[in-house]
Amino acid sequence: MNRPRIASLREEQLFLAISVIVGVYSGLAVACFRVAIEWFRLRALGSALVPAWPRIVLVPAAVGIAIALLVVRFFPAARGSGVNQTKAALYIYDGYIAFRTVLGKFLTSALAIGSGQSLGPEDPSLQIGAGLASALGRLLGLSRSRSRYIAPVGAAAGLAAAFNAPITAVLFVIEEVIGRWTAGVLGAVVLAAVSSVVTEQWFLGDEPLFRVPRYHLAHSSELLAYAALGLVGGAVSLLFVRLVASLRPRLRALPPWTWYLQPAVAGAIIGVVALRFPQVMGAGYEYIDQAMHDQFGWRLLAALCLLKLSTTTLSFVTGTPGGLFAPTLFMGAMLGGAVCGIERHIAPAATGPIGAYALVGMGTMFAGILRAPMTSVFMIVEVSGNYSIVLPLMISNTIAYLVSRRFQRMGLFDLLGRQDGTDLPSMEEEREADIHAVEDAMRSAEGTTLNGEETIGRAVERADQVSSDFFVVNLGDATWGGISRSELVAIGHADGERMLRTVAAPIARPYLYPDQSMEYALRVLHERPFVPVVHRADASRLLGLLALEDVLRVYRADTPPADLAN
Amino acid sequence: MAFGSRRVVLGGLVVALLPAFAFTYLIVSRYKDERQQLAVEWRSRGTVDLSSRPAVAVADYETALSYADDPDDRFELSQALVNAGRYTEAKAQLLTLWTEEPGNGRVNLQLGRLAVHAGDEADAVRYYHAAIDGAWDSGAPAARRTARIELARFLLHNGQNIRAQAELIAMIDDLPPDAALITDVGSLLVDAGADARAMSLFQRALTVRPGYARAERLAGGVAFRSGNYSLAHTYLVDASKAEGLDPVSEDTLAVATQVLTLDPTQPHLTMRERAVRTLACIAVAQRRLAGCSAAADRSKSPDEDLGEIKDHLENLDKLRDRELVRDPDLIDTAMATVFQVAALPASACGPPSTDVRALQLLAGQRRASPR
Questions:
Q1: How do residues A71-130 score in pLDDT, each as one tens digit?
Q2: Does the model's ipTM exceed the 0.85 cut?
Q3: Does the CB of A433 have a partner CB in chain B at under 8 Å?
Q4: B interface mutation test: which of A196, A199, A288, A294 has the most B CBs within 10 A?
């Protein structure tokens, strides 16, 4: 084994070992973060589930001022959810997230969520994990490429610990942050996620986020109700994304002194709403649990969905640090419950338990707002531990995702990134982008194919009938050769009776298959004038030819990507 | 960074995990203790508020649950919700417990009660049966009996007498020597139409607790309905001596007393006593017939029928006890006319008096076992 290879192996092993350590540190940090939120909530709002009214109104407003001071003065990178900051670390800053940002995120998010701002702890946990990983990566002097990926690894660890769901975290980070499934990165992400969940569970137990009731499909026609939930969920997601997208830049455009007041104003409004609907405060997991166990009427559920939408919008657009995952799940649970309540009036016999609708609603809103359709399905399955919910979940999530995408091309995080002036790659757009294949560009080989077993004289006669300057020759044994018209004619004059295969130069492998990507084709083409495109099951069957100008022709014909920001 | 120095840093990070774990353990332990303490505090508040301020108790228990998911708190929360009239939410809470422990007797019993409240017979039967067959932390036999009795009451209320009987019969053998409980079950059997089984239970209750007035009263009623007026009289008199009677039982006792006083066919009587009783019956019939005249116009009975009975009765009026003693067949003839009068409908003759009702019962007995 040579030295560079050994070094590379060591780097790889080191990266995996660091991933485990990152996971453990993230698990510890998230456990402390959760305790900090609760500790502050108890001090600020008291121990009652529904705090006394002066506290409800005053605490979020007063703490809002403190949060604004901290964010504007000391921790500007702690604003918002943290997902884009992690993406920016990966794509812009070579994996760098300042440790100060970790501290700021921890402190300000704990204050915000603990004081009742309508935000959740998951996205901050993701950023805390990413920041810790970044710091550890720097401490260990990782190479630039490894440093870049250590932040998403930490993000997966943070999110896994916050959700108590490693699969969800791995999927989300791969689907939304990294965007690729390379073995090395996947291994590191999985190790970090698992070790963080194990650590977090060691301290806080393995209780799931919600106690999920038993699920069964009451009747196959119930799937229609789930489809309706998908439609409504898509519409509500759209409303939320549009509200955030339109209000956030307007508030940011206000004079800077207003930034100190915005979280406080949001807090005060949330406090007033909470006088009548205390459920809108904080992450609201206990109320998701109650909704899943049929403890609210459908009207209240619908109201809570819309109120949470409004209060979360307020908290988020004012720059208050905190996450969108929990509010998204809250809205989804309430919406699902409301749809179930309506369904009960219409077809009581064909309506399953409300818990199932709430669960599917959560996935639906996750797919609609965060645009992570795979994560949304696996998250609910992982959280519920119920595989049988997959069918309605997939129907509803897909519809919500399609509705949201149809009317709002850019996902929320991509949109926020653009608003912040960072052009981060959109994983969704990359998934949706048309990938050109060889078959889109290859030219027909008809008339340019000669048989190596025929004489050169006969080949010249056939070549005279077409205008091509170059010919592909079947040399037998699934091998192809090439010969130019001038060569063919010259040799034909000299010795017309020779077999063509004796003079045609074999074309070096690899050949191309029609389904292969254009990127791969370009690498295969390299310096060659053209490459045969053959059948996958029978390489002696020529389907076409691909030359560099064919590839360019296709790309030239393509419309350039629209500026999605416009 | 060289691999060696990286190894040192890595080792340092691993070592640093120890204080990090210790720190996290410390704060998480304190956090858990605080939550546990808050749960206890809010649970105590809930216990205090449960009966007097159920709405407040609901909030108390909900808060307690937010700190520690204790099934007992959830159960108490469901009680508070029931007390506050929030039945749907109470059911939801109980269903949460039921999902986690479908065989919990206490939860099933509460769900059964809620189903009864909602009038859902199928659910009520299902949950009550699950409660009867379910697991109980303590006092299982008593709790199961309670569940079965409640179920029987609900079935009786819904007119499902046979199913109620089945439930009650199923528990007879396991009843403890508790006179009140045995009598309760007997009373339900009476309602379910199983008088014979009820009577045996009342007698069992009286064996356990002699002189237990309620059992005597109910036994008297059963004996009366079964035509054993002597036994009915005995039980009812005993009950009356013990603690007095309710108006219905008093009336029953009066009728039974009259039956025993008027019945000329009782085997222990001398011929003279039979004759005297027959004459008393004739007197009752005459009074009844006199009452009938006033309502005769409204009666649909043909006048000639009433007239014929009158003629017969006038003939009987001439009878003396000596003649009856001499010719016992006359007693049968006279009593046949008396029973004809007693059978005249209330619409024609007004509501029957106690002695007329006694005659009606005697007539019934005669029809059931003609000589």
A1: 999 998 888 778 888 888 888 888 889 999 999 999 999 999 999 999 999 999 999 999
A2: no
A3: no
A4: A294
Query: Whole-angstrom Cα distance, residue A175 to residue A161?
Result: 18
Domains and CATH numbers, chain A: 3-204 (1.10.3080.10), 222-426 (1.10.3080.10), 438-557 (3.10.580.10)
Give the rounded percent of residues in chain A with a pLDDT score beyond 90: 46
Measure the CA–CA gap between B104 and B98, rounded to whole angstroms: 7
B295's enclosing H/E stretch is none
Identify the residue whose tokens are 């994990």: A129
Q: Could you give the CA distance from residue A120 to residue A112 in angstroms, rounded to a whole number?
A: 9
Residues in chain A within 8 Å Cβ distance of B63: 47-49
- pLDDT tens string A390-425: 899 999 999 999 999 899 888 888 888 888 888 777
Q: Do B14 and A50 touch (CB under 8 A)?
A: no
Q: Do A295 and B3 touch (CB under 8 A)?
A: no
Name the token pair of A409: 């091309």
- Predicted confidence band of residue A566 (pLDDT cuts 50, 70, 90): very low
CA dihedral of B168, B169, B172, B178, whole degrees rounded to 10: 30
Q: Provide the pLDDT for residue B77.
A: 94
Q: Which uninterrupted H or E stretch holds A473? A: strand A470-476
Taking alpha carbons only, the member of B92, B151, B7 closest to residue A292 is: B92
CB A48 within 8 A of CB A178: no
pTM above 0.80, yes or no: no
pLDDT tens sequence across A530-541: 889 999 888 888
Report the amino acid identity of residue B95. Answer: L
